Amino acid sequence: MTAHERCTVLVTGGTGFVGSHLVERLVALGYRVRCLVRRTSSLVYLPEGKVELAYGELATGAGLLEAVEGSELVFHVAGVTKAHSAAAYYQGNLQGTENLLGALAGSGNQTARFVHVSTLAAIGPSPDGKPLTEDVPPHPLTHYGRSKLGAEEALRRSPVRANAVIVRPPVVYGPRDTDVFKMFRAVRRGLLVRIGGQERFFSIVHVQDLVEGLLAAARGGRGEARAYFIANPRPVSWAEFGTAAAEVMGRGVRTVCVPRQAAYALAWLAEAGARIRGRPSIISREKVAEAECPFWTCDTSRAQAELGFSTQKSLREGIEETLSWYKIVGWLKY
Which of 149, 142, 120, 117 is nearest to 132 (CA)? Predict the structure, then answer.
């Protein structure tokens, strides 16, 4: 039996976009993987018969003591990225994290390695285009960012912090993603939508590179809730990203600049429609506030120096792989 096979790993958010890729990789490496899931969770992306299911709820704390029992490594990937209300962000991101940390401490399992997946949104945009380092004073713009920052602060107050690391990805894309997918779908129609006339620049990471970064953080992070940005070292522009996608699909693309006020009005309508449907939309006034910032960029040198980690996929490779998956499963035709 290998060392990996003797190690039990708990993954929250394992049925989601990032979490499901992480679970696949852990299973392939020979870990015993346990996923915290709801009774209503879709298990379509979990490797059948290779994952232990622990039923529970982060927001209420139900089932968490049983889920953390015997776990030597915990990846806390679950989070709320879109919601109908501010309260839902804090319940899902802050309260859920506090409940998980409380379960670990209460079970006597506070020495488990803990990898907390946060976000660049918890720190905020760059004011001048210079990529942000991990230690800049946080200035989140939205309830999403503030709730994720609150979760980081909860970790730093917890006894679990001694053996914990924080990973802050920026924009994540890849197979199974449904958010950046909407941009790809617009490009398929020949459109690249931008708020206002100013170009935007952002850091980005392919989901498979992010997974390798999470594993590197689990192996090599210093602990004490030290934070690491995991991203491609070179930010990209909105035009560069959209043009690369258009080239892969063999499409021409033109940029449509939506005035700021119109963007907020459309977002308000999208929120209203989402409330009627009972399902949060990726288009919201908070997302517009984030999207109109010219620089969402981060410095990856700490991860390179301390974790020995750097991304492997070029932008072109990542887009090609992602679009190929969308095409195979029928999400996009080109």
Answer: 120
DSSP 128-195: SSSPBPTTSPP---SHHHHHHHHHHHHHHHSGGGGGEEEEE--EEESTT-SSHHHHHHHHHTTEEEEE
> What per-residue string of b and e applies to 160-170 under the rule 16 or more CB within 10 Å gives b?
bbebbbbbbbb
**The two three-digit tokens of residue 129, written as one number:** 């285009």
Distance from C-alpha of 254 to C-alpha of 257, rounded to nearest angstrom: 10
**284 in a structural domain:** no
Can you tell me which residue has the tokens 């679970």?
23
Structural domains in the chain (count): 1
In a domain, residue 302? The reply is yes
The span from the CA of 156 to the CA of 75, in Å, is 16
Domain extent, residue 89, equals 8-176+204-233+296-313
What is the DSSP code (8-state) at residue 298?
B
Question: pLDDT tens string for the chain (334 positions)?
Answer: 345 556 899 999 999 999 999 999 999 999 999 999 999 999 999 999 999 999 999 999 999 999 999 999 999 999 999 888 899 999 999 999 999 999 999 988 778 999 999 999 999 999 999 999 999 999 999 999 999 999 999 999 999 999 999 999 999 999 999 999 999 999 999 999 888 878 999 999 999 999 999 999 999 978 899 999 999 999 999 999 999 999 999 999 999 988 888 988 988 888 888 788 877 777 888 888 888 999 999 999 999 999 999 999 999 999 999 999 999 999 999 9
CATH at 78 = 3.40.50.720
β-strand partners of 43: none
Q: Which residues contact 52 (CB under 8 A, 6 or more apart)?
A: 32, 33, 34, 35
Q: Is residue 242 part of a domain?
A: no
On whether residue 14 sits in a domain, the answer given is: yes
pTM score over 0.85: yes
